Description:
- The radius of gyration is 25 Å and the shape is globular.
- Mean pLDDT is about 80; it is low at about 85-100 and about 115-125.
- It is about 50% helix and about 10% strand.
- By secondary structure, it is an alpha/beta fold.
Amino acid sequence: MNENQRHIDIWNHFLKIVGQIVEPQKFATWFQPVRPLSITDSTLTVEVPSDFFREYLEATYLDIIKKTLKRVIGADAKLVYMVRTVNTQPAMAVPEAAGTVPVNREISVNVQPSGTPNPFVYPGLRKIQINPKLNPVYCFTNFIVGECNKMGYTAGTAISNAPGKTSFNPLFIFGGPGLGKTHLAQAIGIAIHERFPDLVVLYVNGQEFKSQYIDAVNVRNKLTDFLGYYKKIDVLIVDDIQDLQGPGTQNAFFNIFNYLHQVGKQLIFTSDRAPVELQNFEDRLLSRFKWGLSVELLHPDYATRLKMLQALRRREGVTIGDDVLDYLASNIKTNFRELEGAFLSVMAYATAMHAENSVELAARVTEKIVSAPVREITISTVQAAVCEYFSISREDLVSKSRKRQIVQARQISMYLCRNLISNCSLSSIGAETGGKDHATVLHSCNIVSDLMATDRVFKKYVNDLENQLLPSEA
């Protein structure tokens, strides 16, 4: 074995074994992007695209990775991860210069006669160009990446590199208003259009789809055209899918979904709630929404909010102090939309009043948005709130007790620490929770996320505590 490429040979051997164990799409998504860098003694160093990627690998495939490495390298095998160094958030582009409006290639559709026949209109094939309805401002360049949306961003970039060929099909993005669902969905569509210009991409919201369906059933032979039109789409993005109400609309959408999914087309949906919480939806549709990956976009933490404000400052080309950005990031915690509104309001007032952009001005402008100063959130304050909520002691919380209530409280505590405290590592959370390692913390966070998607009572526990710790977001 050539010593200079020993790490490559070992990794290829590793992949050959894992490829026989892991389902092909998941193997392509989670193992093929990993690059071997070096091997020293029994320690193999590999490069992964992001921290989230590494955490997901460890949480999902740790046992397979350990056993396979021992088989390939030996009993002392170790794996070291290096996160790929990239500029994940370049300067935000001015909207007008964000890019050209995407245009789809022409496609052929079958047009049937409707109403009173017109001797000058012949049925049959007709070439049309579908407007993708993508806003170039909503691109990945302008997407602010943080802990609140890292999983969605990672899945989105994977999809944009291989639409319809990853295990993220459909991708179901959900979360509250102003958290970037539409931006992320359109960014995926724009990136796919740039990389694969022959693919037909379409963005449509739920209400628009429903209106199109109603119009189609009210005109003779137009329902066939309607279904045929959608079956020509290679990447279908449906925003606010919770608006697809009505048995007829859902039946038409079910047929479109089935056809596109079976032929390997990419489906992306957004919603203001998780699939399990959608009301008045047929079970067969709900089950299909869960086929791929469901991603929740969370409220942005301080670091992400500040990053967005800094990007806005670059985009608008204005002079505004770091202290003002810090004030806004510390006090506007609801969502990206309100944070941008507060920033632009400060700019507008400063211009109209010929005043400096100061913290005092920001406080006056945002006093109706910011209800009261919020105490700093620490691991201790989270643990205290959880202990009070579940009526247990902190000693119980950080103990090794396996009682169901204590385990549940412990997992929720770690989840809240990870999502509400900026720059809080998994290791530090584990150290403050009875000396747990980072893999245990990550596993607990994943359990809480899964239970929130399936258990309404459990989700209420988490939401109650979030509102208690972040009263301004209630």
